[in-house]
Amino acid sequence: MDRWDLPGGDTLAGRKRDRVARFYRVEVLPDLTVPGHPEVFVVGDMMALDRLPGVAQVAIQGARFAARQITRRLDGKPTEPRFEYFDKGSMATISRFSAVASIGRLRFSGFFAWVLWLAIHLVYI
What we know:
By secondary structure, this protein is of the alpha+beta class. The chain has 3 helices and 7 strands.
């Protein structure tokens, strides 16, 4: 099976290979729309914009941005020209009671980072 036979980003981009980035991500305009289709928004790990990573925070912020854009269009208000991602940092568990965290210039590891990771995840639940 050829990689272009798979459903996903290539289908959404109209099978134009120049609009599909690595990992079947769709190249989007700064307002998260597909070039030539301002009615189609792409968010999350399906979009390719400014080398943003395919992580949850990009997806959450992108989805909120797209929802605001759609609401503004329906209300007849001007839309925002571009999506601006705010990096809140990164966290990962290494093993039970051990993690790493990077928040701005701060770096944590070990048990303290794990407690921080646990607290953040409980807040979001």
